[in-house]
Amino acid sequence: MQKEKHIPIILIICSICIICCENPHRKTIKHHSDNIEIVLNTYKDSLFDKPDVVIDTCLKLQQTVTDSLRFYQLASLLVKGYYFNGQPDSALKINQQVIHYFQSLPSPSCEAIKLAADAYNSRGIFLNAMDKRDTAISSFSMAYSLLNNAPYYKEELPSICINLADCYLHEGNHTLCSFYYRRGLAISDSLHIGAENNYSIFSGMAKLYQELGNYDLAEEYYQKAQQWLDHSSLYDRYFFQNAYGSYFYITKDYDRSLECFREASRIAGNFPQTYYQGISQGNMGEIFILKEEPDSAQYYLDHAKDLLGEFYYQPSLKFYMDGLYASLALLKNQLPEAEKLLTQPYDAAQINPQYQYHHYQRLQELYRKKQDFRKAYQYYMKAIAYDDSLRNLKIQGNIAEIDSRYRQDTILIRKDMKIALTEQQASQWQKIALSSIISFILLLILIIGVIHYRRKLRELKHQKQVGIITGLRMEIIRNRLSPHFVFNALNTVMPSLEHYKELKEPFQLLIRLLRNNLRASEQTAVPLEEEISLVKDYLHLHTMRNDSKIVVDWQIDENTPLQALIPSMAIQIPIENAVKYAFSGSSLSPSIRVGICLQEQRMLHIIIEDNGQGYQPHKYKNDVRGTGSGLKMLYRTIEILNAKNEEKIMFNIENRSSLNPKEEGTRVTLIIPLHYTFEL
User: Fold this and answer.
1) Distance CA 237, CA 267 (A)
2) How far apart are CA 235 and CA 47, in angstroms?
3) SS3 assignment, position 457
4) Where would I find the H helices in 480-527?
5) DSSP string of 163-220?
6) 356-384 per-position pLDDT tens digit
7) Residue range 102-116: average pLDDT?
């Protein structure tokens, strides 16, 4: 009697090992309600031994989170908690809710894609455990596609590849099984995360070659897997001992096989789920049947049945266990019991061909002992037919796997050759680049030297010119009259004008105007009140001198803060320009309006309007009545001040006709923030 594979047994264990990638160093359970990421990472490692704690924690946290993504991340962890707590229906229901949430997102984020991939992966594991491998493969493929096309979270791909390979192994598709195991190994190596996945990959490859009858390669991969056991969890070690025990069982080394199954049973004693220990006990029962020790076999099979619980009644597993009880009955010569077990109806579509082969062998043995040789021969021929079929499948599987491996190895060799050629070309380009850089640096040093030499020459020339200019300036200073001298001279002349009353007031006004202008020119800003006084002195003097008919209308709001600072000569320069240039000799009723008010309690608005000829900056460029530098000076002053302030002064000159075609003249607008800084 032979046993080629334990489909439900190995399937359940492999799936459980993959679902959470448990770290061998378990973390202490803590409540991290303030950080969902920490909670997810902490409780993920507690799924196996404390699923009830995980469920309770996730349910409580879901009541506190407001973000949908975080809510369903907790739901994804809750799915695994229910599954490991023996509540598969609840797990599948919540898993479907997580998938529906992802499908409802118009443009899912990377985190949402990772959540969906995890949900599809978990769903595939649940379906795989229920022998629904076609739909399991579909779920795993969806998870693989999501992560393979996503920019991040590639480290999750090897686990999904392992799940796909495991499904294809039990489907008998050895080519795709080998492909996904090797694909997972390549991704693990490229991401340097081998310690987390190499054990499962090597164990799976060993199982693949074990099924293909290539026992040398199977042993080689079991040895590789054993090297990674220190990096694996208790569940990984349990799976390894069961798989390795099956290998020794097939190679008829029953003592070593029994040793592995005993170790697996001992490890399973640490798990809250009893069916893991039941699997190992069932395997031990089969070994004792082969060793013809019926009492030990009876003990372990009965114990396994109790430990498996509801899993015992899965069709494929029950067929397998009933077959073992039938073998035990044949060993004890309890032929009616054996016949009862072997003649039960079953659905062949749900039974693995290898189990069917053993079933025919047992029926052959039953009827041989009953001396019904005709039936014994019939079942012998059926067993031979199944054996030939299985052998042909193994041969085909080996050929397909070798071809797939050859193609993958050829691709890798080509990649290695391309990499080597690229590295050689890169080395050559590095040499060229190094030579170019050195040449560039030398050229740069030469250019810097030339620039430095020319700069020195320019500096010497500049110093010589500065000396000449300084001498000229000193000469000019010696020939200029001091403004204070002018004031003193005028004050000296004033007493002599006592008899000329018509000249006394203009001279006093002129002296005050010159003094205020000089003081204003030395300041960046002056109080609004002083600026208004200065402008009124200027207009008064102009009226006395020219008998001007210009009417100046001052409209100052009573709430205007007269002590507010404004740029020096900000009102005088526009009014002086209006007096000089705005009106021609034919102007009938020339007027200037000055409006000043505070708006929004923070912005000082000054508007100066005239009804003259309009703003024509180029018309009087060469006019002898002025230098044209006043507005430039004001513009430049405001520009410098604005650079120092967040809130800016707004200064604008425009023709009134641009605002209203029926109006003539010029409009000057000056808006000054009340808390403006005038420090340069």
Assistant:
1) 8
2) 12
3) helix
4) 483-493, 501-521
5) HHHHHHHHHT-HHHHHHHHHHHHHHHHHHT-HHHHHHHHHHHHHHHHHHTT-HHHHHH
6) 878 888 888 888 888 888 888 888 888 88
7) 91
How many CA atoms lie less than 13 Å away from 602 in the CB half-sphere?
A: 5
Q: Distance between CA atoms of 174 and 548, rounded to whole angstroms?
A: 111
Please choose, from the candidates 83, 120, 70, the residue with its C-alpha nearest in 3D space to the C-alpha of residue 99: 120
The domains of the chain are located at: 31-152, 523-673
Question: Does the structure show a pLDDT above 50 at 21?
Answer: no
Measured at the alpha carbon of residue 494, what is the angle toward residues 546 and 540, in degrees to the nearest 5? Answer: 25
Is the distance from CB of 162 to CB of 204 less than 8 angstroms? yes
**CATH code for the structural domain at 523-673:** 3.30.565.10
* Domain covering 31-152, topology: 1.25.40
Q: Which residue from 260, 239, 314 is spatially nearest to 13, judged by alpha carbons?
A: 239
- Supply the pLDDT for residue 13: 39
69 contacts 112 by C-beta, under 8 angstroms:
yes
Hey, what are 441's tokens?
């640096």
Nearest to 122 by CA among 109, 111, 132, 136: 136
The type of residue at 527 is: P
Q: Taking 70 as the threshold, does the pLDDT of residue 27 lie above it?
A: no
Nearest to 668, CA basis, from 626, 620, 614, 629? 614
Residue 8 has pLDDT above 80, yes or no: no
Model confidence over 501-553: pLDDT tens digits?
566 567 666 767 676 666 666 678 899 998 998 888 888 877 776 666 788 99
Query: What sections of 480-599 are H helices per DSSP?
Result: 483-493, 501-521, 528-546, 572-577
Decide: helix, strand or coil at residue 146: helix
Tell me, yes or no, if the two domains 31-152 and 523-673 fold the same way.
no
What is the phi/psi pair of residue 595, to 5°?
-110, 125
Q: What local confidence, expressed as pLDDT, does residue 489 receive?
A: 56
Query: How confident is the model over 415-423, as a mean pLDDT?
Result: 62
Residue 251, pLDDT above cutoff 80 = yes
In the chain, how long is the greatest CA-to-CA distance? 165
* Cβ count near 523 (within 10 Å): 13
Q: Cα torsion at 639, 643, 645, 646 (round to 10°)? A: 110
Over the stretch 224-244, which tens digit does the pLDDT of each residue have? 888 877 777 787 888 888 888
Size (the chain), residues: 680
What's the token pair of residue 68? 């949908």
Of 678 and 231, the structure prediction assigns the larger pLDDT to 678
- Map residue 566 onto helix, strand or coil: strand
Contacting residues for 418 by C-beta, under 8 A, at least 6 apart: none
| H helix or E strand, kind and range, residue 355 | helix 353-369
User: Mean pLDDT, the chain, as a whole number?
Assistant: 79
The continuous run of DSSP H or E covering 525 comes out as strand 525-527
